[in-house]
Design brief:
Pfam families: TctC (PF03401)
InterPro entries: BUG, Bug_dom1, TAT_signal
Strand content: 15-25%
CATH superfamily of the largest domain: Bordetella uptake gene, domain 1
Family: Belongs to the UPF0065 (bug) family.
Radius of gyration: 30 Å
CATH architecture of the largest domain: 3-Layer(aba) Sandwich
Helix content: 40-55%
Oligomer: single chain
Signal peptide: 1-23
Order of helices and strands: HHEHEHEHEHEHEHEHEEHHEH
Organism: Muricoccus nepalensis
CATH class of the largest domain: Alpha Beta
């Protein structure tokens, strides 16, 4: 009886499907967690950022873009949980920095503080290695700022009318510096001369910082530069401000008149400055960078410091910043042609 029962049991086991056969059950159930682990690992998104970030600044230390870049780097370091360092890459009217950023890996770890030359330079240079619309992903417009016409303390001109007379009397010998060939200061100086009826000798620098230093030292007569690069020297009396190029006075220098109110209504040259990444940077990274940047710029210690330096804080979406860049890229070619400016 016992032998017959054993034969029946073996026959029954042999008839079962393979996964449930005797001895296979522990293997089948034991394998399931091992198969699931890689699937879960693939579903987990890697942490970002997992390495330090760099912000490319296209001018020398001390200029307004450099001041802004370092302010943003400090403000983002905490929220992103990684160091954010500034790298100054000067030369070729900022084109070296623009091309470096455009060719960088679109991983959100290389960012750019861009400004007007990004959209001006394609009209100024015969050969250009980037497209301002196609090759960059706008993150946030950060600030706007007027240019300021400043002169060395030894210059006779005490106001814009006096500067105009001096430039006319010297028949173009008065030197007017800018932060570089094709910069907003360079073009603004041309437009100012056309509006006021005088000519000057243009002296280009690699950024507003070095130009301000030479103006303080008396090596050049005058300079048209973004206000934050010169404001501390103006306040300390080392150089004199004659006019700002916005349509209204700057709250940071309320006693300095505008070019428009000095007898030339409608004259305006205002620079924009913003944060960009290489085109192709993933959307979630761009969204986070925009949110973190906006939050950082809204903090009183950041906002008040930038306003005190002459910046006007901008606000808006990534889409509005992209619209501004497209509009600027379309606007400048006609102005450059009218000014006659060209950089080879």
């Amino acid at each position: 009886m016992r032998a017959l029962s054993r034969r029946r049991l073996l026959a029954f086991a042999a008839a079962l499907p393979a996964p449930v056969a005797l001895g296979a059950v522990p293997v089948a159930f034991g394998a399931a967690p091992a198969l699931a682990r890689p699937a879960r690992a693939q579903a987990e998104e890697p942490a970002w950022p997992d390495r330090p970030l760099r912000i490319i600044v296209p001018v020398a230390p001390g200029g307004s873009l450099d001041i802004l870049g370092r302010s943003v780097a400090r403000a983002l370091t905490g929220p992103l949980g990684q160091p954010v360092v500034v790298e100054n890459h000067t030369g070729a009217g900022s084109n070296i920095a623009f091309e470096l950023t455009a060719r960088s890996k679109p991983d959100g770890l290389t960012l750019l503080i861009g400004s007007d030359p990004l959209t001006i330079n394609p009209s100024l240079y015969a050969k250009i290695g980037f497209d301002p619309v196609r090759d960059f992903a706008p993150i946030a417009e950060l600030v706007r700022a007027p240019q300021v016409l400043v002169v060395k303390n030894g210059l006779e001109a005490r106001d814009l009318a006096g500067y105009r007379r001096l430039a006319q009397e010297t028949e173009g010998a008065t030197s007017l510096a800018s932060q570089g060939n094709g910069s907003i200061g360079h073009l603004g100086g041309i437009l100012l001369g056309q509006a006021l009826g005088f000519s000057t000798t243009h002296v280009p620098y690699r950024g507003g910082g070095p130009a301000v230093v030479d103006l303080v030292a008396g090596h050049i007569d005058s300079l048209l530069v973004t206000l934050p690069a010169a404001i501390e020297h103006i306040r300390e009396g080392r150089i004199r401000a004659l006019a700002v190029t916005g349509l209204s006075r700057s709250p940071a220098l309320p006693n300095v008149p505008t070019v428009a109110e000095s007898g030339f209504p409608g004259f305006e040259v205002v620079t924009w400055q913003g944060l960009l990444a290489p085109a192709g940077t993933p959307e979630p990274i761009l969204a986070r960078l925009h949110a973190e940047t906006r939050a950082a710029m809204a903090r009183p210690e950041v906002a008040d410091n930038l306003r005190a330096q002459g910046f006007e804080l901008a606000d808006g979406s990534r889409e509005s910043f992209a619209t501004l860049i497209r509009a600027e890229a379309a606007r400048w070619p006609a102005i450059v042609r009218a000014s006659g400016a060209r950089v080879d």
